[in-house]
Amino acid sequence: MDIKSIFSRLKKLALREVEISRRRPLYLFCMLIAPVFFSFMFVDVMEEGAPNEIPAAVVDDDDSQVSRTLLRTLDAMQETNLTVKYKNFSDAKDALRKGEVFAIVHVPHGLSEKALTQRTPTIYFYTNDAYFLAGSFLFKNMKVLGELSGLAITKATLSAKGLDEDRIMGLIQPITVESHPLNNPSLNYSIYLTNIFIPAILLLIVFIATCYSIGLEWKRGTQKKWFKESGENVVIALTGKLLPQTAVYMLMFAFMDVYLYKINGFPIACSLLRLLGIQLLVTLASQAFSAAIFGILAGQMRLAMSVASLLGVLSISLCGFTFPVMAMPKIMEAISWLLPLRHYYLIYVNQVLDGYSIIYVWKSFAVLVAILGLPLLFIKVYEKAFNEVNYQA
Fold this sequence. Notes:
Helices cover 66% and strands 6% of the residues.
């Protein structure tokens, strides 16, 4: 088969796929409308960058000038909002259980007296870590408050003993820590989460839609006609069918990139053209991965879609942006290396956030290129399925 014939068949198959897609609005909705919707939704939800004014309850049994000063300091912190003051701990605990507040600050009776007489006063903090992010932010602020209040009391005591300011600071803070968060200095959760979660949703759609579009031929009983139009060449058949979808996905990626990095001003350390090239590679790898899944389960459209959905959702957990892969069990770490999203995440951090040399993630590029060849392992299975396997519900 010469080059001209190959391109002619690819064109014919691509136009055939466009016609099939045009007749199925739900098909186009999943590939066009859903990614746009998720892009707007996630950016809007994460607009503030991080949770602010998280409600917390106060039980101030001491009710002294010292306790009121401490609570005003805590309330002034950006993430904390001391919304309600309860007279007893039981009422505050009920509010925590109902989800009305995410933490309780309990100042026991005698706090100020113990502080002034250096008898180690205690402040009690309770956080609801079922809401992990809210609980973590509030606990951090409460811990800072506890440390600052202890240092303030120590400073006042040393000052009363006649020590000068420099001597006091040398005693209570002998080492000064300077924090320099790289590439996301504002610690904006939207920059970290949105930039990877939106592509993850799109790649999940790629997984499912690829299995669906291939399986649809068996469901409609047109797989033999499709195979014949490809010149009975599995590679041409799959390439011609998936090329129009690739174009749609790249259009969606281009929209996401412009919306995130140009309109919303998210930081990017590489060019948009390079990022689109990376996204093209991971899209092709995801389509190849899904085509390989269908090759293993040829003719079983629903099972193939279920497996693709499962692996697509798992890849969000295993890619490493919410929990470090190296801290996972070794078997899960090994599985993560088989998933395209894991390698997209590593390349995204290297190129978009850090702007480092591409040499640091050459392994991820190599794996994505290797995944492109996965369907070739199942050519014989596909050939048999085209000619012998019928649709299985």
